[in-house]
Amino acid sequence: MNKKKKKKTHVPFRLNILFFLVFVLFSALILRLGVVQIVYGDDYRREIEKTEEVTVNNSVPRGKMYDRNLKLMVDNQPLDAITYTRKQGTKQTEMVETAEKLAKLIEKDTNKVTERDKKDFWILNHPKLAAKKITDKERKKVEQGELEESDLYKLQLKRITEEEAKLSKKDMETLAIYREFASGYALTPQIVKNKKVTKEEFARVSENLDSLPGVDISTDWDRFYTYNKTLKSVLGKVSSSEEGLPSESLDYYLARDYSRNDRVGKSYIEQQYEDILQGQKAKVRNVTDKSGNIVDSEVITEGQRGKDLILTIDMDLQLATEKIIEKQLIAKKKLGNTKFLDRAFVVMMDPNTGEVLTMAGKKYEKDPKTGRSSIEDFALGNITTSYTMGSSVKGATVLTGYQQGAIQPGTYFYDTKLKIKGTPEKGSYSNFGNINDLTALKVSSNVYMFRTAINIAGAKYVPNEPLNISSGAFSTMRNSFAQFGLGTRTGIDLPNEMSGFKGSETSPGKLLDLAIGQYDTYTPMQLVQYVSAIANGGNRMKPHMVKEIREPVDNNEELGPVDEDISPTVMNRLDMKEDWIKRVQSGFEKVTMEQGGTAYTYFGHKPYTVAAKTGTAQAFYDGPNRTDYSEPQKTMNITLVGYAPAKNPEVAFAVVVPWAYQGHTGHSMSKEIGEEIMDTYFKLKKERAKKENTETSTDLKVENGKDVQKDQAEVRKSQENE
């Protein structure tokens, strides 16, 4: 039997090689996994578990404002709000999708959507079509450095047609909402809508929060002014949530831990006391994972609304004063020669503390669209506008004369027109003959002040001869006037106060004009500071609008404890003898309390005493319609300063009526306003004293009643025991 030879196969050999290769690969993989897990395991684990901590500041309502009698002036009005908080890494397409859903639930104002916004939105929604707006040749130029990427973007915008950028109403609302989403910062709530959020909108959004990533419902606030427009310009404005931080102060606020969309005081008291009113923000530490999802939140600092301000303003007096000014403006505009009369100011201040009781100003304004005129608040004009004040400043001239040795108390001058060579005759409104300093103030003699200024300048008056004055005479008088606050900032706790304007000419005639208040310009606030320094015996007090700062409390019906009491500040002491100041005080009393005084008709018969000084200044109209005239128009400014009671002053006032009338004679609006505001002041004082006495009497009766009831109860108990 022939044995067949067995055929040898190569399959097992190949399988062995394959198995060997698989073994080697698995061994390498296991080795690699071992290295990863053992050598680098902790590093990779830390990377996977890596989180980021982001601290977010949440704004709080601002502090409130009250008047000196604790009447609420400025409050926070709660508003329903819809917000959006963008997590880190959120894509634009995701925000658009959320905005589309939200647009179906709320109505969003689209007025702020621009053409640029529409084109950007089109690019976002049509990336392929947008890419086709750029040619290969233009892209090549970017590679070659001939164009920038930003240039391609500009070309895209330019080539988007009007038809392409046209959006439906609902798309416009989506875009308006998306704009709000995109303007926010990661993990910082952004207001989407807080005005006119209906209950239905609020409820719909609340029900759909699960399908609206980042969207939430909240409570926002807006400033509410109890007295509407009264003093609103002085109280100031707050930026909106859309405005955020003012661009000109961005770095300042960011350095103070503000967020870009925070609301801050933009003007006046709101701006001046921003640090007080802003409050303490709530600080929240958010912990996010690598995807930007918040995995943990921790409140670092609880928020607290801003502190409250108690202003020095007496709102009852303020409102009454404004009505007086309005009534007078309307009445005097009906008279002849008053076409330039369009404003009037009143400032009332405690001369001993500098507390501003009233800061009133009214102005006619014409609506450019309708052409109709209305009387609007212009309280700011008391510190932002200046005028020649006339004879009201003669108290400073007389005191400067005493100080410089130009005159002595009791010095006489003969009041008749001065004739200086090359200058028109200068005199008083009447020739008063031989008068002293007291009579000069009483009748408002110009000549007496001229002669005083001539002596201050070291000159000698000779009729019909030129007058040679020293070069430093203007500085001497202005430096002395500045002691009273005239021609320099008063220091009031409000921004943008002006100091007035100083005349540039230095001729002898201008020095004489300076002495009677018809050259340099001053603000109404400077005028009341000046008369206060005379009233209180020589202290130039710093005017201030804030009386106290109070801690906030949760109960809206209560006021918190006093955090800071604003103390009176003496800016400087007049470099004058006490007897000199008393002498001028006597002269001011004669103005109002003696027959022949320029304000006697208005105050001489009152149950209270007033010391005052009237003023009339020849001026040129410099109002809003000055460009309508080819030549300067001559007008008269009329003023009144004073204080009361004359012997123990508790209120000082300044009344300023610029461009009151044309011609040498006219109405007496400043004096009439002065009379009415003083009547009002003492009437309010009397009513409050009566009310206080009644309340005290009632409290005593209640307490006595309680005592009687207690005694009766004790008697009954004693009888029962017996």
Q: Could you explain the architecture of this structure?
A:
The chain has 722 residues and is of the alpha+beta class. The chain is built from 25 helices and 20 strands. Strands 2, 3, 4, 5, 8, 15 and 16 form a 7-stranded mixed sheet that branches. It has a 6-stranded antiparallel sheet with strand order 11-10-9-20-19-18. A hairpin with a 5-residue loop joins strand 6 (282-288) and strand 7 (294-301). Helix 17 runs antiparallel to helix 23 and helix 19 (446-456) packs across helix 21 (508-515). The chain is elongated, with a radius of gyration of 39 Å. The termini are far apart. Residues 718-722 have low confidence and may be disordered.
What's the shape?
elongated
**Could you name the ranges where pLDDT drops below 50 across 5 or more consecutive residues?**
718-722
Structural class: alpha+beta
Helical residues, percent: 25-40%
Q: What is the overall pLDDT average?
A: 87
Largest sheet: 7 strands, mixed
Helix count from the secondary structure assignment = 25
Number of strands: 20
Strand content: 15-25%
State the separation between the terminal residues, measured CA to CA. Answer: 153 Å
Radius of gyration: 39 Å
Concise overview:
This protein has 722 residues and is an alpha+beta fold. Helices cover 40% and strands 19% of the residues. The chain contains 25 helices and 20 strands.
